Sequence to fold (262 residues):
Amino acid sequence: MTDFFLIKAFFFVFGAMIGSFLNVLIYRIPRELDFVRPRSACPGCGKLIYWYENVPILGYLFLRGKCSKCHWKIPLRYPFVEVVTGVASLLLMPSSLSSESLAFYAFYFSIFSCFLVHFIVDLEFKILPNVINLYLLATFLVYAILFSSPLFWGAGLLAGFGGPFLVSRGFKALRGEEGLGMGDVKLWGVLGIHFGVVGIIHNIFLSCMLGSVVGIALIALKITNRKTQIPFGPFILVVAFFQIFFKEDFSRIMESLFHLGV
Ligand SMILES: [Zn+2]
Fold:
């Protein structure tokens, strides 16, 4: 019993530590800073952050959300990402410590971490960084090579990348502006490897619907206007999140949706 509790605590703390690293990535990748060095410093005054201030979640509580020197307000996003990543790691905890279970844990936890970084960076900077798309590409490719056929993942990649790419080019030629960023196109490509043709079509269809509904709601509520560019990545990621982490429920819902009126 105690052992089990300790293992759970370990997976939570490990997840929160990864969350702390994800915070570094979220801050440094869009600013094109090296993400290993230098040591973390306060963006307000440049004070180096002590190791005990850097302890996930507790560091934020200890500092009461402010830099100890200049009182720069630490965004709530920092402890939030640490808690969410810790909880995700706990929920994905493998049922045994066999190498196979651990490999599956690593796979799903990596996907979750990439999605979280992508989601926040796209909301804030309107980009889906190449480095995260490349990491996802490698992770999905290894999985696909092990568990599915080249026809399944090759066709998925082609459909996920090719379709949106043509639409994006066509839109640009017609309207002279970027309707769909290349980051979104690349993300669909890598997701296509995992979902196959049918799955990626589901994603494209549902994320466009979700994006339209949210876009119209934001305009109706006067939060944005027609000219505001809304990042599209978060919609792709939310749908993909359900496709991967709630796979059975998702398939059931899709099945009932597509059988309506047939
Ligand atoms: Zn400071």
